[in-house]
């Protein structure tokens, strides 16, 4: 499995940092924590090209390319990923952001807007799509409307989310430049309000602890066989935690993804079956996620 083990380890860490709601994702993907290892971007590129039908491989490559400011490559990678997983709002909004950053003159090119709108059509709570469509409103001159949208996003943002401080700063700066009072409205958005919107509010939906950045970097220095053992150990640990916390749907999705990356489709199918058995009300979502990951039917 080689470098795929590192991608898997990082992916487990990423999913473990998320709560129940998909909108609690950062505006940029944390996958590139391995991108500062020399040659890792090239390895992710090779990994994606070797698995052209694997959306997750293109996702990892796109996120790493974005982190290294290789925006043209990020655009290409996310275009591949969205073509393979058309119902993934996070991939569409990531594509939009990459297109914005890759545009030399237009601060909000039409192709980026199209990607953000596709993300929002799939998931109206996607934070990156909401943020950038508010930017579009601001650029069009509707500063108050943009601020309203950003405040609504902030209200839905879990306290301490990676984008929270930048979002607050944007609201303050745009308000100051355009004479829009925002201080009282910002003050009204309490920590309790933030948690009430999209945060984790129950044990069943609590995030599963994942590896630290230091642990991930340490894993990148291991020989391939040890990387594989570490990845398999983390998958086994995730599986064990899901047995104790079976209502964590994101955890089941991560387990399906992990089994597929380990080339264990039977294990992924078993995870899907267990997830549905534990969460029958979420069957449609689980089936959709399984389909996007390429889990065999049956």
From TrEMBL:
Keyword Transcription: no
GO biological process: cytochrome complex assembly
UniProt keyword ATP-binding, yes or no: no
Residue spans of the TPR repeats: 55-88
Recorded superkingdom: Bacteria
UniProt-listed SUPFAM superfamilies: TPR-like (SSF48452)
Keywords carried by this UniProt record: Cytochrome c-type biogenesis, TPR repeat
PROSITE patterns xrefs: TPR (PS50005)
Full protein name: Uncharacterized protein
Organism: Sphingomonas alpina
